[in-house]
């Protein structure tokens, strides 16, 4: 540990601690000669200012907190990378925490954020989160909170989201254009707001654009669930599978490959995706892009607006686009 202190520097140079402090801050009252002596000795002794003490004085840690259910997710990986890049450009550090989709762990992470006096928090809530008081406590401390991806069904927070409704509409419309009539549509956890939005939009567009189609709906918590659901319904000779997320897509594709089905000859596949997983297959999977990278940029922009004094509460979305592969 570096035990070098301002006091030690002042003793060696036989000047006051306040003179050392002001010299290191390039204060105009200190002569260039003294500044040079102080800086040279500080560098030689590997002196580093006490960040915690500075934070307490300035009430600005220049540290953002970011809480996600889990990092082993390409969407979150690209979101984190995007936010970290923007943070670094703006001289902020980023502290990334995982909740494990556990509300208790989420509370512990929020406590860590408060203890570290984060300048702002980016949060994707756990599936089981229903109490938002701990997040409101941060807001009461004048710490901006930007929810992303998995957001609360609550109007009092700033949120940045992918276009859930538009994404599901695009996927359902693509299936209709390809005249798919027996479709397995696999969605995520029904407790999530994004799942409910995507399900409602998919049903509405299918009713309008593909009314004669028979849709079987499944709900998967993880890729293993998705694999099991797909395996069960493939026996019913569905002609297409819709996957609400990358995690669901990986499970569905395992089931399809185990049965040696040819895409798109035997079965069509379409997903809502960050874009990485669909390109791992041949033919590439047609997907509606929901970019974690773009969402990260939007979230950071929203955070900086809050830090600049904006008190406007809003929900922002990124545009989705259909990326044609060879799977339909």
What does this structure look like?
With 328 residues, the protein is α/β, with parallel strands linked by helices. It folds into 3 domains: 6-49, no CATH class; 61-162 and 293-319, Response regulator (Rossmann fold, 3-Layer(aba) Sandwich), CATH 3.40.50.2300; 164-289, 3-Layer(aba) Sandwich (Rossmann fold), CATH 3.40.50.2300. Helix content is 45%, strand content 18%. The protein contains 12 helices and 12 strands. The protein has helices spanning 6-13, 17-24, 32-44, 51-58, 74-89, 103-115, 133-140, 164-177, 193-209, 223-234, 246-258, 292-307; strands spanning 63-68, 93-98, 120-123, 145-148, 158-162, 182-187, 214-219, 240-243, 268-273, 286-289, 315-318, 321-323. The strands form 2 sheets. Strands 2-1-3-4-5-11 form a 6-stranded parallel sheet, with helices on both faces. It has a 6-stranded mixed sheet with strand order 7-6-8-9-10-12, with helices on both faces. α7 links the parallel β3 (120-123) and β4 (145-148). α1 packs across α2, α5 (74-89) crosses α12 (292-307) and α8 (164-177) packs parallel to α9 (193-209). The radius of gyration is 26 Å and the shape is elongated. The termini are far apart. The model has no long low-confidence stretch (mean pLDDT 91).
């Amino acid at each position: 540990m570096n035990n070098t202190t301002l006091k030690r520097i002042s003793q060696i140079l036989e000047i006051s601690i306040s003179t050392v402090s002001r010299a290191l801050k390039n204060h105009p009252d200190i002569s260039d000669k003294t500044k040079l002596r102080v800086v040279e000795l500080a560098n030689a002794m590997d002196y580093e200012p006490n960040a915690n003490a500075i934070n307490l004085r300035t009430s600005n840690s220049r540290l953002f907190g970011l809480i996600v259910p889990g990092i082993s997710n390409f969407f979150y990986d690209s979101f984190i990378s995007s936010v970290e890049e923007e943070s670094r450009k703006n001289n902020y550090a980023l502290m990334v925490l995982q909740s494990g989709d556990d509300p208790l762990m989420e509370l512990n992470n929020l406590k860590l954020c408060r203890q570290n006096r984060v300048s702002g928090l980016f949060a994707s809530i756990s599936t089981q989160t229903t109490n938002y008081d701990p997040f409101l406590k941060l807001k009461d401390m004048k710490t901006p909170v930007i929810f992303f991806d998995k957001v609360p069904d609550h109007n009092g927070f700033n949120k940045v989201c992918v276009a859930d409704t538009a994404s599901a509409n695009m996927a359902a419309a693509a299936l209709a254009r390809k005249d798919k009539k027996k479709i397995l549509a696999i969605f995520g956890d029904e407790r999530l707001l994004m799942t409910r939005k995507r399900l409602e939009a998919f049903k509405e567009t299918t009713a309008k654009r593909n009314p004669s189609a028979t849709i079987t709906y499944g709900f998967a918590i993880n890729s293993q669930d998705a694999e099991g659901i797909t395996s069960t319904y493939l026996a019913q000779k569905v002609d297409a599978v819709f996957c609400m997320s990358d995690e669901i897509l990986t499970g569905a594709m395992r089931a399809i490959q185990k049965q040696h089905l040819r895409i798109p000859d035997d079965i069509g596949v379409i997903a809502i995706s960050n874009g990485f997983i669909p390109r791992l297959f041949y033919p590439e999977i047609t997907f509606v892009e929901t970019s974690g990278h773009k969402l990260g940029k939007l979230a950071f922009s929203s955070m900086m607006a809050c830090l600049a004094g904006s008190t406007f509460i809003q929900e922002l979305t990124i545009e989705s686009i259909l990326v044609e592969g060879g799977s339909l």
